[in-house]
Amino acid sequence: MTEPLVCRSSAAALEGKQLLPGFLLTPFGWAALPLALVVSAYPSLLADLFGVTRERMHLIALALAHVEPPSSFEFASLLIRGSTRAVLQAVLGRWPMGVKRALKHLPPQVLQRQNYHRLVDLLNDPDSAKVLHHAAKIDDLAVQVLAELPPSLRRPLPLALSDWPRKLNGFAQSLEFLVARGLNRSFDDLVAQLATVRARPQLRAMMRGWVESLPLPETVPPASIGNARRLDNSKEIRSLARTWRNCLGSYTEDIDAGSCVVYLWDDADSSAACLARRHGRLGWFLDEVKGPRNADLDSDQVEVVAAAFASVGVPKNSVASPIENIMWRC
After folding, report:
1. CATH, range 224-320
2. CB 3.0-4.6 Å disulfide test: which of 136, 174, 216, 228 passes with 263?
3. Could you tell me if 106 and 140 are in contact, meaning their C-beta atoms sit under 8 angstroms apart?
């Protein structure tokens, strides 16, 4: 059975107009527009779309992440009406092990496009496939974290930790930080030892041993970082807190104790208060970047600030989080 790409009446209605998927297609996210193009081209498939299940939604998104929107009615019909196996065979040329279960455990909205590619790759790896098989839910964070772990750690670490996607987010970067911070081990050495982990206490003891062997931080961060100036005077900090209507004044005791510092970032684009805190032997990290009245800054501006602090050895606190999660919260 064939159907014209766009019937004449539909073509006339769509000519010169941009398709804007509505509220009902919200869960499809980035896949909504290519899907709207498909059903506009082949209107007889619209009724099937109203009965789409969560599993079918993710199957469609996975397919659209790997191929261009269907250019024939046969392929479009297969995408929306065909069996899971038939769709994946047509798109991937294979049937990844455990894919049907994975599709049933994905969230109520589509994943990011790149995470469907990652998901297929992870299902092709026996170790990561086993972790996904036991996962209560599989979302963007779980797929991203598992894909970013060194392959030899994709099975032992998630199986040793509860809530592993949150606790291991950015873990490889944390290992690189430990090496750069002065741990007398290479990144590959750390990965090789972590690959032997079989239980949570073993992992916790391993991480604590590495952190305890780090040299103590010798100084506070520099007085100037990029466009930021360190505020050492408590009166100046309290004055800024009153002007900006925030809680900076509550940090003066911690500043006096040497556990945190406050900077005022000022440039033509925006001003920001930057809070850096010492995390024990791990050193200093950028904890917060806020505008007046604790307003959130544009993400690009935050990245500019974070890059300036990282250049002097004060990375974002997300680098420390996986280490601290394992040491104290697992």
Report:
1. 3.40.630
2. 228
3. no
